[in-house]
Predict the structure.
Amino acid sequence: MTFTIAVAGKGGTGKTTIAGILISKLDRVLAIDADPNSNLNEVLGVKVEHTVGCVREKVLEEPPGGMTKQEYMKFQLNKSLVEADNFDLLAMGRPEGAGCYCYANNLIRNYIDFASKDYKFVVMDNEAGLEHLSRRTTNYVDVLLIVSDPTVRGIKTAARVRDLSKEMKLKIGKMDSGLKELITDLKLDLLAVLPEDEEIKKFDLQGKALVELDEKNQVVREIEKLKEKMLK
């Protein structure tokens, strides 16, 4: 049975960092970068040549050789997969033509349903905000991990996501002791507290993949603990 983790929350809180390091701690992962402004590949240290946005344009054309649109979509999405040792990555990207992302989201959701059986884990890095929930990109997850910065606005954003996803488990990230009363009042589960990390800032400035961080790095150690809690 595939175990699916979706990472969500407001912008600038470290969602992609957490998703990338978490992916590096798991095995046989389908990594989904569901943010149109895709950069999960940079954290993972791989290059993306084709995105779902590109596939969107392809499948709007007439399929070649008598293929159905569904078969052609699967073929194009398989071509878009970036393969690595312990994960495969599929990136949303931006559609080349005019129009909304609804069709691209449908492609991702259908592809996950089709392909996830071949993976032990699916980890989806979602775009900031709440819109991806209303578009139902994050269907059928085992854990919806909500990441927040240590602010009242961030925590309230997490609560709004929880309210939109009552049937899902919601988790929230880093915050200090002064906000724990608010967390309790909003009935959110505090799963992990991640420290600010100078080494991660340095990696970002240098454009280095965060999966190259040392195992002794404090954030890496905390995400390892986070993984163990989620999988129990």
Summary: Confidence is low (pLDDT under 50) at residues 134-138, 167-176. The longest strand covers residues 3-9.
